[in-house]
Design a protein that fits this description.
The structure is a homodimer. By secondary structure, chain A is an alpha/beta fold. Chain A folds into 3 domains: 181 residues, FAD/NAD(P)-binding domain; 125 residues, 3-Layer(bba) Sandwich (FAD/NAD(P)-binding domain); 117 residues, FAD/NAD(P)-binding domain, CATH 3.50.50.60. Helices cover 27% and strands 27% of the residues of chain A. The first copy, chain A, has 12 helices and 25 strands. A 5-stranded parallel β-sheet of chain A has the order 3-2-1-7-18. In chain A, strands 9-16-10-11-12 form a 5-stranded parallel β-sheet. A 5-stranded antiparallel β-sheet of chain A has the order 21-22-25-24-23, sandwiched between helices. The interface between A and B is large, with 67 and 67 residues.
């Protein structure tokens, strides 16, 4: 009898696992249930569709449902919602709307993803108020903007979705107001990044409202304003991007363990507390490479990587899902911002470190080379072990340099080891000392002084 | 009595050491002898001066002689050539042209650099035939091109100096011929880089003559042609860039040990076989981080870093000069090419490895994001240990990604460890799987198959 591998969720983690399992085992029966229409899509591309840089939503689909079925022999069922998991009987219950059926499995992957948080704002159901988490949302925003030709947009939330949507809507000629309840945008990137990005957003004409909680939205049928505690700001379209929460209800109802982060707890192979049930992607935890603790950073690479590893594990080659450094990068108009590891000093202390940090600015290229931009690098290390804990990079080019630190985090390098890396130099690409190495040099000096 | 630290050579290694020693010890007597006029200059910027991107040679000088003297209290003497070193007496003999004197030292740094190789071509002394290694050369080329308005340039040597000068002179409107005796340009970068760069050079109108040894140059007073074995090619100006050789004669004459590479042998602190004599920069060896053997890769960062470390060591804080990965990057018109570690399979075998490599192409950004360029990554690993040995990257953007591999080399990461790095992803910066991780993924698969 052939084994059956059932996948719940047809996006990055789920379809990576299904595809990898198929490549490893041509005989396995693989059934994937997706409750919506879209599978295997690049959610991160949505702001660029709204902006107009990406012509069609189909461009964001990596592999079509048909290709999964015909080329990869995966029994992919869209508009099929799994409504119940019975880990003891090893079955899932599937609803097609009118119909329900049971599907047995030998191994199961829960890849139910996350959803946009819908805060309890008044007026969330007004026309023209959107969250953005799947392609239908992107389509709806794009259609609304095209059809109603709004003059003013309000973005609620200064995370990367908020900032990317600010760029997208400003590029379409809207006056953009961005509301953030915290003192700074891009909270996980730290203050040095935030101040550079905020200055740049203002230069680009985005009106920033920091430290500004939103109470709700006003309007008759369609939204016409953002309501603050003490003011009303006109807005013809609103995008709420205040974060995501993992879809864990199905798992929790089935007795699958949820971790402290609120996402599904897994071991190094992505296995839950049930031997034959795995979880991956935005609904699952991952191990932070710096702290060694469970963490929840729902990002595309983590989902793809874990899915792929689980595809190998369920076909007989136990494969680690890998650790995460929380590496992230975001474009805000002409500035790139990136972060990795533990930047927040309080969080570092909670994890048992004694954090020391430096912030430096350095040119992205040789100072005399045309087009040189200023880069700001913040580097954080543990005082005693001198191990690098995290970093941020922000500037007009070169934010991808964060990868050097991400690699250092995975390898557990010290500040001095990063300082003496043989990084690539030529005038069009870098100063002699790469800004990452310069930050390490300054931090090493500062560690010595305080030793 | 105050100790005296004498430095021979006023460029990257020498002046980094002098400056660092001064910061660490305000009382040390520091004397630096430079046989020419220029100190502390960015030789790598010269092609961009010839091209016209850098306005003045002074822009390439990091710190002026006066600033070293007044701001850093370094007794810097330009046009002072050290002609003899006596390590037993701890003195150097200095010539100023007319005059000679002896200078005692407690600790000595030999940072005599390298010189452009002058091959035994006929006609090397014709007007209009240049090598390029210091700012005087750049000045001479720039002046000659401006004054004689040449139509055709010949570059001899397809290393990075040759390629940068090809770009510089083509940008000034000259027809450029590039001659390389080997089958490919950029030999240390490997064939996959070379073919991409060669195609691009041809697209840009550079006439490539590969596998083509040059016999010499023809002309009356001024050069007018390049002589090949079987043809004569017109050339109004010639730049010979066939590599550099370390200036070790002074050291060798003094009984200082020269390594197998032909450069000065040093220990991990940059110390020669004489306790009080150090060597750094283009005249000295360095330890290759992959092979653990002495290597000679004369590049700016190595010189700066070693100089700085020696500045600390001579002032009482023994500091490792660091290892090198042979990381290099070069711009060829609109293409960037980079390399690190051991790429050449024969060299890998000589070092005791069993090399396996893959070459992949991947987009530099999300495939649907505007401006995406194709990147070609070659990754080499040892079959048994699965340790990464080296890599190259070439493409329209993103060659700096080589730093991820350089960092991995310093950390001794395996292919699977590189595959599971948490590298930065957002559509404007990278595909979900960074091309480096993709190369590692493919190489890991290939290692498994052959295991």
């Amino acid at each position: 009898m052939t084994d059956t591998f059932v996948v719940i969720g047809g996006d990055a983690a789920g379809m990576s696992a299904a595809s990898k399992a198929r490549r490893e085992n041509p005989d396995l029966e693989i059934v994937a249930f997706e409750k919506g229409d879209w599978v295997s899509y690049a959610a991160c591309g949505m702001p660029y569709y709204v902006k107009g840089d990406v012509e069609s939503l189909d461009d964001l689909v990596q592999v079509t449902p048909d290709a999964f079925r015909t080329e990869r022999d995966i029994d992919l069922r869209t508009n099929h919602e799994v409504v119940d998991v019975d880990p003891d009987a090893q079955t899932v219950t599937v609803s097609t709307g009118n119909d329900r059926f049971e599907q047995p499995y030998d191994q199961l992957l829960i890849a139910t993803g996350a959803r946009a948080i819908e805060p309890p704002f008044t007026g969330m159901d007004l026309e023209g108020v959107f969250t953005i988490h799947d392609l239908d949302h992107a389509d709806a925003i794009q259609t609304y903007v095209s059809e109603t030709d709004p003059e003013t947009a309000a973005i609620v939330g200064g995370g990367y979705v908020g900032i990317e949507m600010a760029e997208a809507l400003a590029s379409r000629g809207l006056d953009v107001h961005l509301f953030e309840m915290l003192p700074h945008v891009l909270q996980p990137f730290g203050e040095s990044v935030a101040t550079v990005v905020e200055d740049h957003l203002r230069e680009q004409g985005v009106e920033l409202h920091l430290d500004t909680p939103v109470a709700g939205f006003g309007g008759e049928e369609a939204v016409s304003s953002v309501e603050l505690d003490s003011a009303t700001i006109p807005a013809d379209v609103v995008v709420v991007g205040v974060g995501v929460e993992p879809n864990v209800e199905l798992a929790a109802d089935a007795g699958i363990e949820i971790g402290e982060t609120g996402a599904i707890a897994i071991d190094e192979y992505g296995r839950t507390n049930y031997e034959s049930v795995f979880a991956a992607g935005d609904c699952a935890e991952a191990t932070n490479v710096v702290t060694g603790d469970a963490d929840h950073v729902p990002l595309a690479l983590t989902a793809n990587r874990a899915g792929r590893a689980i595809g190998q594990t369920v076909t007989g080659t136990p494969t680690d899902v890998g650790e995460i450094a929380g590496t992230a990068i975001v474009k805000a108009f002409d500035v790139g911002a990136a972060r990795t590891g533990i930047i927040d000093e309080e969080r570092a202390r909670d994890a048992g470190f004694d954090p020391v940090s430096v912030e430096i600015t350095a040119p992205s290229r040789a100072h005399y080379y045309p087009g040189t931009q200023e880069l700001t690098v913040t580097l954080v290390a543990d005082r005693e072990s001198e191990r690098v804990l995290g970093a941020s990079v922000v500037g007009g080019e070169g934010a991808k340099r964060i990868d050097t630190v991400a690699t250092a985090l995975h390898a557990g390098l010290t500040v001095t080891e990063v300082e003496t890396l043989d990084l690539a130099y030529a005038p069009p690409f870098s100063p002699v000392w790469d800004p990452i190495a310069t930050a390490a040099k300054v931090l090493a000096g500062s560690l010595k002084k305080t030793a």
